[in-house]
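Predict both folds.
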Amino acid sequence: MAKKIVEKVINAPAQALEMGVNQGQKLAKNTMEAPGKAIAMSKDQGQKIANAMPTSAKNSYKKAKAYWYMLGPGLTTGASDDDPSGIATYSQTGAQYGFSLLWMSIITMPLMSVVQEMCARIGLVTGRGLAGNIRKHFPRSVLYVSTILLFAANTFNIGADIGAMAQAVQLLLPKVGTTILVVGFTVLILLLQIFTPYVKYAVYLKWLALVLFAYIISAILTKPHWISILHYSLIPHIQFTKDQLLLICAILGTTISPYLFFWQTSQEVDNEVAEGKTTLKMRMGSDKKQIRRMRIDVWSGMILSNIVMFFIITACATTLFNNGIHTIGTAADAAKALKPLAGNATYYLFAFGIVGTGLLAIPVLAGSSSYAISESLGKKQGLNHKLSQAHTFYGIIIISMLVGLAFNFIGLNPIKALIYSAVANGIVAPIILIIIMLLATDKKIMGEWKNGRLSTIIGWSTTGLMVIAGIGAIYALFPQ
């Protein structure tokens, strides 16, 4: 009885939305087609430029094009890690401690890359998402606790990200009201996620990843001291204060996040479905070519994610820290503080990046919760399905977005939202990592594609580190 009630509540938003589709069809169609038209125009212009190039340049262009087409779920997963909440965390790191924690961007790169590669491999080999594998191989209690905590953490994060996007737009257009912006972004993201065919939607997310280069450019414009940067990047500097402990835990929680695990695994499955592998039997197993493509994709996405972290910390350390500004509340606060110190170009790039990363990350946050809960309940899931085919899946996305939107109207401080999110992630991340390790090292499940020795060592080390980080975050947040 309770399960039926829960299902009815989850399905209700999707059913109600489906009833109103006809009235909003024109708006939805225009919303879906606009990004595609822009991308098509940029492709046409790029091809014209390529045709005019000399032969050697054309060959380089072809290689770059082939590499770009190889990228997919790994790139979007890595890029979504640098969401507005992550930008706020990295900005605060640079403002409060200068270059001291730059080494975190180096050390976390192989850790998150190995973990995300394991998630992708699990999806490719088993043909199921992460929640589907947990449901099959572990007690239901573990699955339900993990998915509830994941939903809570993601929803807090969505609320904070929507608010940050609105604040970023207000930096550029001060007269636009907050209500219009937060509601507008929520509706836009829902329309794209629910009504855009998966093949097109995956392309949109992929192109949105390029917005991250705004942070690399903005950092270079601040003219940082590269010798100091090299020093602090290679030699860890830790003060062992409570504040720094909390910030280190926040960085680990931001880079190695549970929502990335679920999204990566499910996107690999969705990609296979889009290629025609519509049954579990067709998806099970893998080959060297597929694994190689996946590794290039995953490592490219994680390297980009950490490079962006590196440059955000660098930009804020060079400008804010060196000018005595040591506290940043939100990503928008960082952009505002940068304007008088680094100039308009850095200010606009930083603000533009907040909006772009929000458009990329929020669908990933909502989608990962939906994949996890839908698989937990044994319901159809995946962006390949239409609204009418997967009420539960899209219902959870709608609920996630609406609850996140509501946080912006009940006076919940965005920093508190991030703290609650960090605590939930600190609890759930070690649990999920242990499960990932048990799945990835089991030959019965993974066959020849089970973890090698190095992946196993790095994976368990990362799990241990996240256990310590979770305990540290809880200790630092609550006074003794």
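Second protein follows, with its predicted structure tokens after the sequence.
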Amino acid sequence: MTDRISNKKNITLSIIAIIVMLAAIYVLDIVIKPTSSWSNLMTCLEKGTIYALVAVSMNLLNGFTGLFSLGQAGFMLIGAYAYAIFAIAPEDRATVYQYYEGGGLIHFSLPHMLQDMMGGADAFGGTIGYYLGIILLMIFAGLITAVIAFLIGIPVLRLKSDYLAIATLGFAEIIRSFFQWEGLGPVTNGSNVLRKFASYDSSIFPVLVAGICVAFIVLLINSSYGRAFKSIRDDEIAAEAMGVNLFKHKELSFVISSFFAGVGGALLAMFQNNINAAPFTSNMTYEILLIVVIGGIGSITGSIIGAYLFVCCSEWWLRGLDAGEFLGIEADFMSPGFRKVVFAVVIMCIVLFYSRGIMGTNEFSWSGLFNFFKTLPKRIAAVPGKIKAKFSNKKHKKHTENVKEAQ
């Protein structure tokens, strides 16, 4: 029997865990220098956080509403560009838009404008204005993405299953080509890189932003709208019979998912310090989908765990395989690209042994965590008996088959 923890204790433990986590990130941000061998830890922390937000937004659509969409990379692209275009300082625009006369069509930066209005770069008020401009631009990026998703959703959400996936994937490719179109170059810089835009200085910023966004999604899932999303996923006919407006709720889920994908795209632009439409291909969408599947379709906690595992494996833990050395072991067969082979094997093992993902449809709970460690000694002690029973059953089954064959 599992021990239940009261809601008050759950909230207290969660607040303490959040404070400890933020304090640890703050200390690590100061202690770990960019030249340190542990700098990959901060890189994985930031990128994993961004991918966790995008994966949770995709899970809202694919896992909780049951809509198989593959347009996440396109929506991230819209958010990234919507942020970057309006965050480049006026004095840097001539350098960034060097191939276009007059430094492009946009000649202001919202973060730098608010910074100057509130006292300048050296004043405390200027710093507040700078980050206020970044936050407002991120919301703007999400809203622009949501509006475009709303327009795309009108024809697309009348499709189902594979047809919906193909349609959203096609729209994502159209969006990528549109942003690389030279006719739109004075705004998007065409196929060239956007850079020198306002960005954050501390790893706490993306963690806080992603945490607030994920908390909003959790509240949404636990609301009446979330229950309507789940009913559509389980049985559309039954949901409609109970009075759920299918198209309205599908459109709502699609728009909200796209909004947070746009915010994730803006965070990714700041993390990379530059942005270009070329990397936002279907491969990026497949990576996000892979994270959702590994973590568990229909699990917010699973998407977060899957994002950090995916990023850490691909960006840090398995990097040595490409250099011919791993865990102090050198081998000639380890060459550039070998990391991807091992990573693929790891993914296959996870899918084979966790067919529903690491978390399945379950979520993290303090009760579950405490009971896991409480029952761990008993479960370890029971392993030899289970193995013995398994082999005994196989031996008995084989003996029975031999008897039947002899008869």
